[in-house]
Design brief:
alpha+beta, Phosphatidylinositol 3-kinase Catalytic Subunit, Chain A, Domain 5, five-stranded antiparallel sheet, binds zinc ion
């Protein structure tokens, strides 16, 4: 069988590398000792937003690892567990845990994107869930300081209304990275790559709260590892291609006006505005075309249902074409 973390061949459960990353080597079974919690407190989780988004309806549970056993925890645990979302408005919702796991693995394995450790796991009753390790929790349970870009741009429900995390542009995030991160240029290039990744893999829900800065032990700000990556088009097909605009007034650019969606020109313009060298920006864009066959094979070898595999691959192909 395949490792439920990285898909390599294993006898059972998780390979050693994944056990190390996720569980500090503990032999954690790939099946939890409890059933999926009854979602009787949905109102608490479902945001009152007019925009239907996967992040607005996904349930998140806190998990603590104790003596090799994963337990539900009422406070801030070391892990976040996301079961199949209960929202009837979503399409293909049974595939949501694997969609997130697969997308995170593609980011890490093909694009070297720094990601939160993650895997697929099952409840006792067989239902799948996505599990991810919190990178802001230290081994002793204390926390690194983390601030997302809704906080960093002072946007709240109060100041910008219910859709506050969708107000703003990726350019704005980049400008703040420049301001706060000491090694700004590598961080900006990583951020730029992640914006393209989200576009190519149809993550239309990469809003202000899905990017963060984190402070290390010496108090320096770093770009936090990527989290919440998934191909949201699989579940919310009518959502816009990106959660935020690339830069102000980009829809009036020549390319967007002609085609009605972003293309290579728009990403090159974003890079120019962020001060990323043109040849480097071009190289980052070109990465997405070079591994196309291997990525398709990887998607086909994932735990997605056959229907969703086809959809995932076809959306990926369409988007790669746009940025060539
Ligand atoms: Zn593995």
């Amino acid at each position: 069988m395949n490792c439920l973390g990285c898909y390599t061949e294993v006898k059972e459960g998780y390979c050693l590398k994944c056990r190390k990353k996720l569980f500090d080597k503990a032999r954690v079974p790939a099946v939890l000792l409890f059933d999926a919690p009854k979602a009787d407190n949905l109102a608490e989780f479902q945001e009152h937003s007019k925009r239907l988004s996967i992040s607005g309806v996904q349930l998140k549970y806190s998990i603590w690892l104790e003596n090799g056993e994963l337990k539900l925890y009422d406070r801030n645990g070391q892990y976040i567990l996301k079961p199949v979302p209960p929202a009837k408005q979503l399409i293909n919702f049974d595939d949501a845990p694997e969609n997130e796991h697969l997308t995170m693995q593609i980011a890490e394995q093909f694009f070297n994107i720094d990601t939160a450790a993650n895997a697929l796991i099952h409840f006792k009753d067989g239902q799948p869930a996505y599990i991810t390790r919190r990178f802001d929790v230290k081994p002793d349970g204390s926390k690194y300081m983390q601030e997302d870009f809704a906080q960093l741009t002072n946007r709240t429900k109060h100041t910008h209304g219910e859709t506050f995390k969708y107000e703003g542009t990726y350019e704005e995030i980049g400008i703040l990275i420049k301001k706060f991160v000491a090694a700004a240029m590598p961080a900006l290039e990583k951020f730029f790559q992640l914006v393209i990744f989200n576009y190519v893999f149809s993550n239309g829900d990469a809003h202000l709260k899905n990017f963060s800065l984190i402070r290390n032990d010496s108090g320096e700000y770093l770009l936090a590892p990527a989290y919440d990556l998934m191909s949201t088009v699989i579940h919310t097909p009518y959502e816009s291609d990106t959660a935020l605009d690339l830069y102000a007034d980009d829809i009036n650019s020549a390319y967007y006006s002609a085609y009605g969606h972003y293309g290579r020109d728009n990403f090159m313009e974003l890079a120019r505005r962020l001060g990323i060298v043109e040849t480097r920006a071009a190289r980052i864009l070109d990465q997405f075309n070079t591994n196309k066959n291997e990525i398709t094979e990887f998607i086909n070898g994932s735990f997605l249902s056959e229907v969703v595999k086809k959809l995932y691959v076809s959306c990926f192909n369409d988007k790669v074409k746009r940025i060539q």
